[in-house]
Write a structure and sequence with these properties.
The protein is of the alpha+beta class. It has helices spanning about 15-30, 65-75, 110-125, 125-140, 145-155, 155-170; strands at about 35-40, 55-60, 80, 90, 100-105. Strands 1-2-5-4-3 form a five-stranded mixed β-sheet, sandwiched between helices. A hairpin with a 7-residue loop joins strand 4 (about 90) and strand 5. Helix 3 (about 110-125) packs across helix 6.
Length: about 180
């Protein structure tokens, strides 16, 4: 049976864990990584989340793959070539290690910007955080052992938030702040 989906209250440890991993990533990737950002729910102070550290690494190009694949593998991350999302190159922690998802995306791409906008909007709008958090708790209870249905069922609230984030970005002339690491 798969591991259950757990939504945990926010902890400052997530930011510390990202910082530690981010420093290691910066050391092995150097200038290959144009940005290294903490994304996803663990990147939003106060937001309950699955205890998975999501990291986005922005690169100039996906080729050559070895430019970032070899350094990430040297830290124990496994490349997931079978990932169906072609807008990123995806890496996971080694079996038994702390859950970390690494999303390598092309700098300036829609997918890269979307992840940053979603995070930044939630960081500045606690009312949307509470709504998102409530939906995550409900869906985790409903789909405790079915990650695919859990993820699919979050789509409507995510797109609702992104619609508001889009308006906010236009009103504020949003652009991503400096890289987290």
């Amino acid at each position: 049976m798969p591991d259950p989906i757990l939504i945990l209250p926010y902890t400052d440890e997530w930011a510390k864990e990202f910082h530690s991993i981010g420093c290691q990533l910066r050391e092995v990737l150097g200038n290959i990584a144009l940005r290294i950002d903490h994304i996803g729910s663990t990147a939003v102070t106060g937001l309950a989340a699955k205890p998975v550290i999501d990291i986005q690494i922005s690169v100039a190009s996906f080729t050559p793959l070895a430019a970032f694949k070899a350094p990430l593998e040297s830290l124990g991350f496994s490349y997931r070539a079978e990932n169906p999302d072609k807008s990123k190159r995806y890496f996971r922690e080694a079996p038994g290690d702390r859950r970390v998802h690494i999303h390598v995306r092309q700098a300036g791409s829609w997918a890269e910007q979307l992840a940053l906008l979603f995070r930044d909007f939630l960081r500045r709008h606690p009312d949307y955080c509470r709504r998102y958090e409530q939906v995550k708790y409900e869906l985790a209870k409903k789909y405790q052992y079915n990650r695919q249905l859990y993820t699919k069922s979050k789509e409507s609230i995510i797109w609702e938030i992104l619609k508001q984030a889009n308006h906010w970005s236009q009103q504020t002339a949003w652009s991503p702040a400096n890289s987290d690491n």
